[in-house]
Amino acid sequence: MARIAPVTIDNLPLVTREAFDEHVNDYNTPITNSKATLGHSMLSFTIYMQWYPLYEKVKQQIGERAAYLYAWAVSNASNCSLCAAYFRKIMIENGEDPDRLLLNDHEKALIDFGSAIAEHKGCIANHVYNSLEQYHNKEEMVLLIAFAGQMIATNIFNNVIETDIDIYLTPFLPAKFSL
After folding, report:
1. How far apart are CA 65 and CA 33, in angstroms?
2. What is the pLDDT of residues 131-140, one digit of tens each?
3. I want to staple 109 with a disulfide (CB 3.0 to 4.6 A). Which of 10, 95, 132, 173 is the partner?
4. Same-domain pairing of 67 and 81
5. Structural domain tally of the chain?
6. Which H/E stretch holds residue 112?
7. Residues whose CB falls within 8 Å of the CB of residue 139, separated by 6 or more in sequence, listed in order
8. In terms of pTM, does the model score above 0.85?
């Protein structure tokens, strides 16, 4: 059970309801338990929802598959069951087996990089950094690092709150997070 319950639609202030509606319309995505919990603080909701334009930019830069693999690697290494399940869902819906991923060298470097950032709190070995840097310029590396930081912030929020897994994600929980 979550440490802080999500806001309920019945009691929302108008500004929160408008922000939720705008988010749903802009990104064609539901208000999840995580987002509804962020709804207790509109500034926090606004800041955390900047994940969406950052993720869109990452997808433009490295492609959709590499982007969701990267986000999954960060979330999985952060032990965030909710976010790991979300990205496993995307993988499975794209015909992938998350337990048997076929990766090219760039994707392997992305997964290693994202996992290392999360596991080692950003203190990663030079060989891990250099493995990814060979594929990207400085601007692209900054974007990937910033996105990992935003993903980790989301993971931490959900881990601290112990956000309840949204029902639509429960079938996608990896074995290590099974309910």
Report:
1. 25
2. 999 999 999 9
3. 132
4. yes
5. 2
6. helix 105-119
7. none
8. yes
